[in-house]
Design a protein that fits this description.
There is one protein chain. The protein is an alpha+beta fold. It folds into two domains: about 250 residues, Glutamine Phosphoribosylpyrophosphate, subunit 1, domain 1 (4-Layer Sandwich), CATH 3.60.20; about 180 residues, Rossmann fold, CATH 3.40.50. Helices cover about 30% and strands about 25% of the residues. The chain has 18 helices and 23 strands. The two termini are about 30 Å apart. Its cofactor is Mg(2+); [4Fe-4S] cluster. It catalyses: 5-phospho-beta-D-ribosylamine + L-glutamate + diphosphate = 5-phospho-alpha-D-ribose 1-diphosphate + L-glutamine + H2O. Catalyzes the formation of phosphoribosylamine from phosphoribosylpyrophosphate (PRPP) and glutamine.
């Protein structure tokens, strides 16, 4: 379960991908375990590792997958059985496809030309058409994921393509949407990033071991050195002969996902040359300039609101304080089928430090408001504990439109901002004032990167299915 309370009320992470190739032939499964653990914040529903031995027979893959966290699925004996020096791993939160064992990744595909292992982070907007093309020619799917659509198209293209890289490039050329892919063929590790750069992917090295990962924190967590980001529209291939780059899919237009900097990515990651930690500090400072408040202290909602709160405090000169005790031992499978139980879960995860809030005017910073349930409950708890005023500041603009690229933003009917003005939301959650990050401040927060802000503005970087757009606007 995601650390931030926003997970419980609508927003969820994407997925994380990780790959390793030990050129000296050493087993990589144990390091992959730690790499995936470092990406656990990107998905907690399932995980998997697929490895092969590049010195052994071609096409032999050892794969283990399961539902749950990395440390729940993998154990010492499991890792010992995963012998191989080339591996692909995945942690998943479902965006396309339900949470079943069949939909766990990596996908392992055995076909006419050999074996393909694939891990995918993102979402395709033309997955239905691509899937239908395959089904009309006899393909039988085992999952409901768009990742399997990508894998099947690569396998089909490989029948005529001279190399796996060429098959991947041909597939990517007809794929629309967000994707970071790590793929292994029997003797190669291949990374692919969508031309808009919507999903992150980076390259690292540890001695003679090459590493690819969603975030730089996963590379450093296994003792590796971050080399660089894989560029949008770039295909990077690692073989025993070296590292090769193909940038023929690149385009001028970029649209990096703003949520990596607001809350997806880990604080110690750098994505596209931007420190996530510094981006969140800048976001909090921008909020302080746009929406100042007369207050005694600034506090953040754990965990993803804390750094922005620090930025707000520094820019405003108002002291930063800790006002919540977070229970770190609440199980991730805590079930909340009813609204009452969802509200109770807030009190179980967070308790108020009453001496810190009694009689105080508080600026409360969080990364987002989706349905408003969590913030409403927190404000109620704070005022019950004696807080005098609560001024809510949000380090993202109001959510108005759904995301089609892998961020689990609910339909607009579930987004409080789609049917309420800022003033109405303020009254609904019981705040004394409410300020959202202005859209125009987002690019500066993210270090000047061109961003995808479609869930705030409705301006999608590419065409999405007309029916979905129509539903979003209604």
């Amino acid at each position: 379960m995601r650390e931030s309370l926003t997970y419980e009320t609508g927003l969820r992470e994407e997925c994380g991908v990780f790959g390793m190739f030990d050129l000296e032939g050493g087993d990589v499964a144990r390091d992959m375990y730690y790499g995936l653990s470092a990406l656990q914040h990107r998905g907690q529903e399932s995980c998997g590792i697929a490895v092969c031995d590049t010195n052994g027979p071609k096409g032999v893959v050892n794969c283990y997958k399961g539902l749950g966290l990395v440390n729940e699925v993998f154990h010492e004996e499991t890792l010992k059985r995963l012998g191989g020096n080339l591996g692909v791993g995945h942690v998943r939160y479902s965006t396309t496809g339900s949470s079943t064992i069949e939909n766990t990744q990596p996908l392992v595909l055995k076909y006419f030309k050999g074996t393909l292992c694939l891990a995918h982070n993102g979402n395709l907007v033309n997955a239905f058409e691509m899937r239908r093309q395959l089904e009309e020619t006899g393909a039988i799917f085992q999952t409901t994921m768009d990742s399997e659509v990508i894998a099947f198209h690569i396998a089909r293209e490989r029948l005529a393509a001279p190399t796996a890289e060429e098959a991947i490039k041909r597939t990517a050329a007809k794929t629309r949407g967000a994707y970071a892919l790590i793929i292994s063929s029997p003797r190669k590790l291949i990374g692919v990033r969508d031309p808009f750069g919507l999903r992150p992917l980076c390259l690292g090295k540890k001695g003679n071991v090459w590493i690819m990962a969603s975030e730089s924190c996963a590379i450093t967590s296994v003792g590796g050195e971050f080399i660089r980001d894989i560029e949008p529209g770039e295909i990077v291939t690692i073989t025993r002969d070296g590292v090769f780059s193909d940038k023929s899919l690149q385009q001028e237009k970029r649209a990096h996902c703003v949520f990596e900097y607001i809350y997806f990515a880990r604080l110690d990651s750098h994505i596209d040359d931007v420190s996530v930690y510094e981006a969140r500090l800048r976001g909090g400072a921008a909020l302080a300039h746009s929406f100042p408040a007369d207050a005694d202290l600034v506090a953040g909602v754990p965990d993803s609101g804390l750094t922005a709160a620090m930025g707000y405090a520094k820019a405003s000169g108002i002291p930063y304080e800790i006002i919540f005790h977070k229970n770190s031992y609440v199980g991730r499978t805590f079930i909340k089928p009813t609204q009452e139980e969802r509200e109770n879960s807030v009190r179980i995860k967070l308790n108020i430090l009453e001496p810190a809030v009694r009689g105080k005017r508080i600026v409360l910073v969080d990364d987002s408001i989706v349905r408003g349930t969590t913030m409403k409950n927190l404000i109620r708890m704070l005022k019950k504990a004696g807080a005098k005023e609560i001024h809510v500041r949000v380090s993202s603009p109001p959510f108005l439109f759904p995301c089609y690229f892998g961020t689990d933003v609910p339909s607009n009917k579930q987004l409080i901002a789609s049917s309420h003005s800022v003033e109405e939301i303020c009254r609904e959650i019981g705040a004394d004032s409410l300020g959202y990050m202005p859209v125009e401040d987002l690019e500066e927060m993210a270090g000047g990167l061109p961003l995808c802000t479609a869930c705030f503005t409705g301006n999608y970087p590419m065409d999405v299915p007309d029916g979905e757009i129509k539903d979003a606007l209604e």
